[in-house]
Amino acid sequence: ARRRMPGVWPLLLLLGLATPGHGLLETVGTLARIDRDELGKAIQNSLVGGPVLQNVLGTVTSVNQGLLGSGGLLGGGGLLSYGGIFGVVEELSGLKIEELTLPKVSLRLLPGFGVQLSLHTKVGLHGSGPLGGLLQLGVEVNVSSRVALGVSPRGTPILILKRCSTLLGHISLMSGLLPAPLFRVVEQTLCKVLPGMLCPVVDSVLGVVNELLGATLGLVPLGALGSVEFTLATLPLISNQYIELDVNPIVRNVAGDVIDFPKPHVPVQAPPKEDHTSQVTVPLYLFNTVFGLLQTNGALDIDLTPELVPSNVPLSTTDLAALVPEALGTLPPGQHLLLFLRVKDAPGVTLQSKKATVSIPASIRVLFSVPGGTPEPLCQLNAVLTLDAQLAPSATKLHVTLSLERLSVKLVSSTTSTFDASRLEEWLGDVLRATYVPMLNEDLEVGIPLPKILNVNFANSVLQIIENAVVLTVPS
């Protein structure tokens, strides 16, 4: 009275009807590629880490008043009690589900179709045998379901259970006695009732995975700058190795207004994804947006006054006279200088050749301090700060740390005489490294936001800078 399972039965997740192309990304979108192993881990973790099985088992035992026996399917008007075909049936008390073994999960992506997922579990049933004593049965079960992809009211992808059934495999009598005819009756009964008892497992798993998928398209705060909302640009695409999400970032300022900074004209060519890795491609647009928000908020402007400048920073008329004495005119040495730096245009970010660079155009007004009076102007300069950007990923964002590579300066006006402003570049560069760059790095602690992709942690990912994008790759 034992039956072998003809292989593992699939759970089909219909996640899309197309396959990814060659990785050609729009100029704005964030491309996320979820490896099949990562999806399998998310499903397995939903069964291990959460109360899925406990909740389902609790539901089963609360509504199950006995599958077999005087009040069940086989007793008192039940399936086989009519006419007393087997007198021993009435001696069976309620056979209940008491245990659910953690399902084994395996899946295979079906390009252009969906995901084939297998849940193989074992059910433990306890009751009293017809001849008295404890009766224990173990049943191997495969749960088979079809799940369609829909859209939630929030516009996030959601998996919807359409059909669920079970396939019984090996049935073993762990303890007690059960005559062969009654064994077959129990087997037939379980085939009818187990789908209703075990399909809640699928529902619960989908609920957990849907929460993870929904979190992908959540709102990410940018501190005092605003926020980024990730939305799905197209339906998910499926290859034989990964699910691809084209995610569109919508940037808002603190007032909630959508901010639309200039977009690159050339689409990103995302590199191929290796097997057993997940990948996120962060576009140049997000970098430009963060720096653009910093500029429009005035966070890139600074007034370097004597109160804010450390005593070891060379910022006096004496330091200036050593480089361009003609700029001072009749000013005495030893007077404090003040630098008022303003950024009127958005910085430019360059991602290429394995290097990230930020260019900040600024105007710098140089003034001198008058004891007990108002600072007086000395000259005005146009400057371009070229900064090297070091990128380091964490679980939720890309951290950016800037260092000044070079400074170019041109004279706009002077209250004394004209001079070659390029002679000030090294000196001003040292001043800005000591004062301005640390302020920039403090403002950049908001980072470049990353969408949350299931439970993938990109803190230890391999970072690659390509043309107009940054690619993060992490093993599954």
TrEMBL record:
GO CC term (a single one): cytoplasm
Keyword vocabulary terms for this entry: Disulfide bond, Glycoprotein, Secreted, Signal
Coiled coil: none
Main location: secreted
Organism: Sciurus vulgaris
Membership in a protein family: Belongs to the BPI/LBP/Plunc superfamily. BPI/LBP family.
The UniProt record lists the keyword Iron-sulfur: no
Isomerase is among the record's keywords: no
Matches recorded under SUPFAM superfamilies: Bactericidal permeability-increasing protein, BPI (SSF55394)
Signal sequence bounds: 1-23
Record-level Gene Ontology MF annotations: lipid binding
Taxonomic lineage: Eukaryota, Metazoa, Chordata, Craniata, Vertebrata
Stretches assigned to the Lipid-binding serum glycoprotein C-terminal domain: 274-474
UniProt-listed InterPro entries: Bactericidal_perm-incr_a/b_dom, BPI_fold-BPI/LBP, Lipid-bd_serum_glycop_C, Lipid-bd_serum_glycop_N
Domain named Lipid-binding serum glycoprotein N-terminal: residues: 33-275
Entry function: May have the capacity to recognize and bind specific classes of odorants. May act as a carrier molecule, transporting odorants across the mucus layer to access receptor sites. May serve as a primary defense mechanism by recognizing and removing potentially harmful odorants or pathogenic microorganisms from the mucosa or clearing excess odorant from mucus to enable new odorant stimuli to be received.
Entry protein name: BPI fold-containing family B member 3
Protein's cellular compartments: Secreted
Pfam families according to UniProt: LBP_BPI_CETP (PF01273), LBP_BPI_CETP_C (PF02886)
Name of the gene: BPIFB3
